[in-house]
Amino acid sequence: MLNAFNLSNVLLAELEVGKQFYWHLGNLELHGQVFLVSWFVIGLLVVASVLATRKIQMVPAGVQNLMEYALEFIRDLAKTQIGEKEYRPWVPFIGTLFLFIFVSNWSGALVPWKLIRLPEGELAAPTSDINTTIALALLTSLAYFYAGFSKKGLGYFGNYVQPVPFMLPFKIIEDFTKPLSLSFRLFGNILADELVVGVLVLLVPLFIPLPVMALGLFTSAIQALIFATLAASYIGEAMEDHHGEGHEEH
């Protein structure tokens, strides 16, 4: 008869960590489960957008009301971090980042992906895969480089020697650490949350995991907000002048 320790080992063995479902495209190996859930998230966002804009009403209700609230929230976030004069072109990018990460995180907590069997690995939130979070962080890096060059041209390189020239190597290192910190923070928090909930569901499947799942939903929302806020902050920082007058107080 199995004792409690052996039973725990048997149950924990059912958790698959690090296994992937690969699609082979020539010599490339693609993480199939990441694409499947990412397409599901994108599909949800597209459907919500269509429903919200299909019959626009003067007094919003239902999905339209929800999407307008999300748009207003994202607009305020971008305005605060980037500045009132320059935030508008960046609302779609910041909004896409926030909504994709938010829905991805919540899909991992609310959708019973483990009921869908794959030949290998299992479905989970796209943001629990390091490849997804690194891709989002690299897009953010490209965005703030583009923002700086589009406003200052080659003068953008002047930021690297401000306030004194010996800051050059530190500024270059900072450009590498920004995307790394963004990607690892998001990946680590979402993966840890999914693992904790998965272990608790296996060991004590009734009631005990519910508070942890509720906390996970809150944490997932905060992680999406942090990522979008930092992305907007980096873009605003890239566009502000050397004397820090790019942001206006309002």
From TrEMBL:
<protein>
    <recommendedName>
        <fullName>ATP synthase subunit a</fullName>
    </recommendedName>
</protein>
<feature type="transmembrane region" description="Helical">
    <location>
        <begin position="186"/>
        <end position="208"/>
    </location>
</feature>
<dbReference type="InterPro" id="IPR000568">
    <property type="entry name" value="ATP_synth_F0_asu"/>
</dbReference>
<keyword id="KW-0472">Membrane</keyword>
<keyword id="KW-0812">Transmembrane</keyword>
<keyword id="KW-0066">ATP synthesis</keyword>
<feature type="transmembrane region" description="Helical">
    <location>
        <begin position="214"/>
        <end position="235"/>
    </location>
</feature>
<feature type="transmembrane region" description="Helical">
    <location>
        <begin position="90"/>
        <end position="110"/>
    </location>
</feature>
<dbReference type="InterPro" id="IPR023011">
    <property type="entry name" value="ATP_synth_F0_asu_AS"/>
</dbReference>
<keyword id="KW-0813">Transport</keyword>
<dbReference type="InterPro" id="IPR045082">
    <property type="entry name" value="ATP_syn_F0_a_bact/chloroplast"/>
</dbReference>
<keyword id="KW-1133">Transmembrane helix</keyword>
<dbReference type="GO" id="GO:0031676">
    <property type="term" value="C:plasma membrane-derived thylakoid membrane"/>
</dbReference>
<feature type="transmembrane region" description="Helical">
    <location>
        <begin position="30"/>
        <end position="52"/>
    </location>
</feature>
<comment type="similarity">
    <text>Belongs to the ATPase A chain family.</text>
</comment>
<keyword id="KW-0138">CF(0)</keyword>
<keyword id="KW-0793">Thylakoid</keyword>
<dbReference type="InterPro" id="IPR035908">
    <property type="entry name" value="F0_ATP_A_sf"/>
</dbReference>
<dbReference type="GO" id="GO:0046933">
    <property type="term" value="F:proton-transporting ATP synthase activity, rotational mechanism"/>
</dbReference>
<keyword id="KW-0375">Hydrogen ion transport</keyword>
<keyword id="KW-0406">Ion transport</keyword>
<comment type="function">
    <text>Key component of the proton channel; it plays a direct role in the translocation of protons across the membrane.</text>
</comment>
<dbReference type="Pfam" id="PF00119">
    <property type="entry name" value="ATP-synt_A"/>
</dbReference>
<feature type="transmembrane region" description="Helical">
    <location>
        <begin position="130"/>
        <end position="149"/>
    </location>
</feature>
<dbReference type="GO" id="GO:0045259">
    <property type="term" value="C:proton-transporting ATP synthase complex"/>
</dbReference>
